[in-house]
Each structure stands twice: as C-alpha cells, then as structure tokens.
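FW: tagging you since you asked about this chain on Friday. Here's the raw sequence from the shared folder, copied in full. Didn't touch anything.
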Amino acid sequence: MKIIYPDYITALSMTNEGSSYPIENVQNYAPKDVAKATSTGAQTITATVTQGAAIWIGNTNATSASVTVRDGETDAWATGDQWATGDQFIAAEISVDEAMQVDNSVGRLWSSWAHRDAQFYVDIELTPPSGTILEVGALRIGDLNEFNAVMYAIEKGGKDYSVRKRFRSGGLYFRKRDVTRTFNIKWRDTWAKDFDYFVDVLEAAGPEPLPYLIIDDIGGTIDATWTGLFTYTQFPRGSFNNLRHALNQVALEEVV
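HL: got it, structure written out here
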C-alpha cells in the first residue's frame, strides 16, 4: 500500500485553461469540480513542486498521458506508470512518454520516480477522446509513503448516497447520487514501528482525503491494485504479538 502525502505542489498552469474551470480546481477535495480547457485536443499541465516522488491524477477523461519530471532545462523521465482500467491496474514498467490507455469511466493515473528533495517541475500532457475538451478533477504530487501490501482478503464495497423516501401509499421517491467505493483492509508488518509510521501519516493528515495505491498481494503474488482519493472511516488499529509482528487494519471510503 502506498500513500502520497504531503502534497508539495506550489504552482500550476494549463494550456488553454478555461477561466470558469481553472486549474486550481484540481487541488480541492471535490474531484467532480473539474478544471477544463477551452479547446479540444491534448493539453499540458505544468506543476512546480518543492519535493516528492509520486503523482496521482483523478477524474479525468484523458485516454493517454505523457509525464515528464525535470529540473530546469534538464529532463529526466519517470518510469512505472499505471493506468486504472475498471478496478484493476495494468502494471507497466514503461517510459512515461509513451501513450497509455485508460477507461474513460475511471480516469485515474498513478506514477512514481526517485525522490527529489529540491524544487522541480512536472509536465503532464493529457489527451482526451477525439473532438472532446479535456477535464481533470484532481492532481497530487508529493512524498511517497510505502507500506506492506495487503496480505489478507480485502473487503470491498460501496456507500450509496442516493435519496430514498417512501410514500404512505407504498410508492418510492428516489434521487440517484454517487456510490463511493469502500475498503476494509488488513496487512502485516514485520516491525511494530511500521504501524506507528502509518498512524503518524494519518495523524498528520487527519481526515484529509489522500491518494492511495492499494495492492492485493495475497500469497505473495500481486493480483490487483486500486487507486483513488480516500479518507479513513475507521482509524487504523494494530494487533501486536511482539515488536516483530503487527497485524494492522484500516477502513477507507473514496471521495468523489
């Protein structure tokens, strides 16, 4: 499992940015409050970042991406992009300047690189379907906090925010609203201090929604991964047989 925190973006710009849907929208906690371009075709977002090692993009209609991490005039290519398709990722160790496909109904990207502790720039070229205007709902770039992969069955569900009201006649009024994904996950750490590190991150962030990469590693084989902007609904708990072994648990809910 991986978490991006803190976010270290200090400035953002986008080519053909729409004044009614500014690029700053990608930094709030409502991914449906998107940034939009004013013209169709590929657009480039440039982020100034003080330090960090990972990027997460959410709620975009882009079908391919090119991400460049650079220091001033010297370019360095990040590797290891993963585009979500449905609820499962296609893991790909490829240069990020290559196009990668994403399911339009998902629109999430996770990538990481060697940590940089001085100011750098990230250029993100996103290409929407032909003839459409690019939309991006969320963007985070910051430190990469890594924990053990999930080693037990993941409880995955959803929370329906639709409105329902029964009439006295027996009829039903309803208004459909979003269904958010929920996860109840367990993982084992070799040392109890790893659990304390996880708690330190969530104590610092509080209920702030954070980008997670949840990795299913039951039996030592990565079967599936999920990513999204999540907040905890149950603060993490740990069970310690001794200082060398900790069984940890946390409940998460997606922010859409």
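FW: The longest helix spans residues 192-205.
HL: agreed, and The two ends are 20 Å apart (CA to CA).
FW: great, closing this out.
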